[in-house]
Specification:
By secondary structure, the chain is mainly alpha-helical. The chain is built from eight helices and eight strands, in the order E-E-H-H-H-H-H-E-E-E-E-H-H-E-E-H. It has one domain.
Amino acid sequence: MTSPTFLPSPTVSAVHLGPLTIHFYALCIIAGIGVAIWLGSRRWITRGGRPGQLADICLWAIPAGIIGGRLYHVITDPELYFLPGRNPWNAFAIWDGGLGIWGAIALGCLGAWIGCRRAGVSFVAFLDAIAPGVLFAQALGRWGNWFNNELYGDASTLPWKLQIHQMDTAAGTAVTNASGHAIVLGYFQPTFLYESLWCLLVGLALLALDRRCQLGAGSIFALYAAGYTAGRFVFELMRSDYANLILGLRVNTWVAGLICLAAATAFMLLRTRPRSTAYPPTTITTAPPKTQQPLTGTGV
């Protein structure tokens, strides 16, 4: 029995339960969020936070992150939704894919900052606590692209090349030919898998470094940003799906490169600071009491 010479892709991306359609892309994102909150909560407690506190902050961060991720995608690829013949309402169909990580992180951080302010805890400590879990969430989320048969690279003949089907996103199934077989578009580089494995490796590296080294406040999150974007820069160069270009490079390639440089610089500046804690120590200065002057003169 010969081994397969390609990685198969699913021919089903959703299940229908009466009027309810459950998309596997959404399930992957939900699973990733669950892992990030679970791991982040454990790390938050080691930084002096209270149980349940990080999850409460995430109630602000997660919706903001989803909105930001979708906004980034729609803004950077408006022709997918607003050109003649396109359906603008599909801009809201996040279950079909299309969440920009940069927008998700930006608005997600804004939501987290609001949550931290309301809880009276350190925003930087939250970022350091949640960073490895976010990488694992991204690793799981990329498998949603596998179910959707999307985010692949150039055509490939490698043994691990990815089989891609023509998908009907509305039905959540592959389009079939006259014989009832799923239509195969070709075999391509599995860039979704490369990114998923990279996120897993960087997340494990962050956990090991944070356990062995007393890295300064904010440096774990800076390493997350630098590590993830270093890999993303390479994967963007490999991808063959549609994207807008600037000077011959995909928009996300430019964004990944710039963020990587900025985050690496931030890490070098932050790594020697004191470790982040949920409740940073505050220095309270109290003015010395005034010396009571003796009373003079005569009273009335």
